[in-house]
Every structure is written in C-alpha cells, then in structure tokens.
Amino acid sequence: MPYVSVNGIELYYERTGRGEPVVLITGLAGDVSFWNRTVPLLSDGFDVIAVDNRGAGRTRYSGSFGVGDMADDVIALLDCLGIRRANLLGWSMGSHIALEAAARYPQRVRTLTLVACYLYRPARSAYILDYLSEGYTAGTVDGRTVAKVLNVLLRNQRFFEEADRKGRPIKEMPPPDPRGFRDQMRAVNGYRAELSAASVDVPTLSVHGLEDIMTEPSAGDEIAALIRDCEKIRIPGEGHVLRPESYIPCVRAFMERHRDGPRAPCGPPRPSRRWWTGSPGCRASPCPCSRGASPRPPPGSRVPDRRGT
To answer: Are 80 and 52 in contact (CB under 8 A)?
Structure first.
C-alpha cells in the first residue's frame, strides 16, 4: 500500500499517470475515491497524486491538527517522492489546504486551483456541520444521518431530480470516521484563509459552481479578490460537488499554460469588462466557463472579519 511516514503520521496516497505532477486534495470527510472520475481526465498528461488527509481515508494519525499541518503533509509527500514543484488542486476544505501550502511554500507550487473555496466560514453550513460532528462523536447522531445531510449540502437540485426521474436510489457517501470528522471540522473552524490568500503569489484559478449552497459563489469571489491576478471560472448548473467534466478541461488548460512559468490569461478580456467567456486553450467545446481576473487589494487594506458564529 502506498504510504509515506511524514510529520509523525502515515500518509496514504495514490499515484497515476505520467507528466507534470498535480496533487489532488479533497475536502471534509473525503478520501482519494472522491477523485475517481477526475483522475482519468488528467492522467494522460499529468502525474496525478491523490492524498487522504488526516482524519479521513486510510491515513493514520493521532492527536489534534490544523489546516497548516495538512498543508505541511502535502509538501512532505512531495519531498518523499522527489518532486520539486507541483500543481495543487484542492476542493472545499482541500482548497484551504492547497492555499496554505502555496502561501507557506510558493517555490514548491507551480499553479494553484481552488475549487469551491471560501474566505469566511459559511455560517449556515457551520451551524449544521458543527452539530453533526459533535453529535456523531458523542453517539447522539448516527452515521447515516451525517451522510444524508452532507448529500443535501453537497449536491444540487438536478442531482436529486435526475435520480427521482430515473427511479434510481440516491448515492450516498459512506459514513465518515466520527473522530476524524470531528477533528477535521475543528481544523476548518480554526483556519483564517484571508491571511494566506493575501500572500499567495503563484498562478491561481478559482472554480465555483453557481448552484453551490454549501459555500455560495459570492464566497469564492471574496477569496479570489484577495489573490493577485486570480483567474475565475463560474459554472452554471453545478453545486458544491462539481462534475469533473464541467471544469477539469479548463483546469488542464490553465496548468498547461503555466508549464514554463506564468503567462497571460487565455482569451483577451473585452474592453471595459472585467469578465470574459471562453478560452482558446480550453479543451471543452464550447468552453463551459466564465473567466475573470481579480486584482490584489491595495496595500494596507483591511478585510473585515465576517466569519459565521
């Protein structure tokens, strides 16, 4: 089994394909299987490495941890594999891990892709997730309830309508490990993304589904606005979990444009507009994404703390 001993833990990872390395970092309670449909879309041109974070999957750990610890784990894995620089792609909580890794180790990160990322802890989501994680650990909430609530937050309306129309059962994630779920929630709640976002200085792409109710698109816009020259893709008809085919072609194009260092965004911006659509480098036809770039806020500007309670 592919394990590495790093930072006092046994980190599980899977590796597929050949080419420039890209590390896939999943979100709350997720493991490497989250990327099963993503890996085939990348492995023909990239060395794809998926990891199980502390608190999920087959990674073995002890004690409490934070987002910074999980970011250090990713870089330590690259050290073990002899990889000097890699593309990082993080989803949800994994986007914060990738963000923190890029802020701490910019020389190790070629590109940064943040999928369903957010600046402030979403108060509505935190309200129910905190209850679930503490109750699940205490035994007052069962695993099936946790899985069902997560499904409601992660999926969009189309997902449930299609299942109902086709008469198929709703696919649910396996119940997470109670202790790991609680520990990951505590790590998420203790992270301040704005500090790292303002310091990131690597090519960055922000991806968000426009039907995301876990972390609404405006939350992705807020964090993108703090990252210098951050490109944005906003995808209609996608929720917190996005279908890989809806955005991975654009992510590939983004990573390929930066193989030899930063380049100008593909597709010229229209005069007097901040947004533009389509991309000559995108493999999807027509390109499903909308793009834009966010300037870094002026020096000395202050971001208000509006995290949920």
So the answer is: no
The dihedral built from the CA positions of residue 47, 249, 159 and 240, taken in this order, carries a sign that is: positive
Q: Specify burial of residue 58 (Cβ count, 10 A radius: 0-12, 13-18, 19+).
A: middle
Residues 169 and 224 in one domain: no
Report how far residue 196's alpha carbon sits from residue 219's, in angstroms, rounded to the nearest whole number.
16
Please give the average per-residue pLDDT across 9-13, as a whole number: 98
Higher pLDDT, 286 or 164: 164
Residue 74 has pLDDT above 90, yes or no: yes
User: What are the φ and ψ backbone dihedral angles of 157, each rounded to 5 degrees?
Assistant: -60, -40
> Where does a domain end: 183, 203, 222?
183
Cα torsion 52, 55, 60, 62: sign: positive
Same domain, 93 and 209: yes
Looking at the structure of the chain, the number of domains it has is 2
Q: Two tokens at 123?
A: 């108060």
Output the pTM of the full model. Answer: 0.85
- The two three-digit tokens of residue 79, written as one number: 């050290």
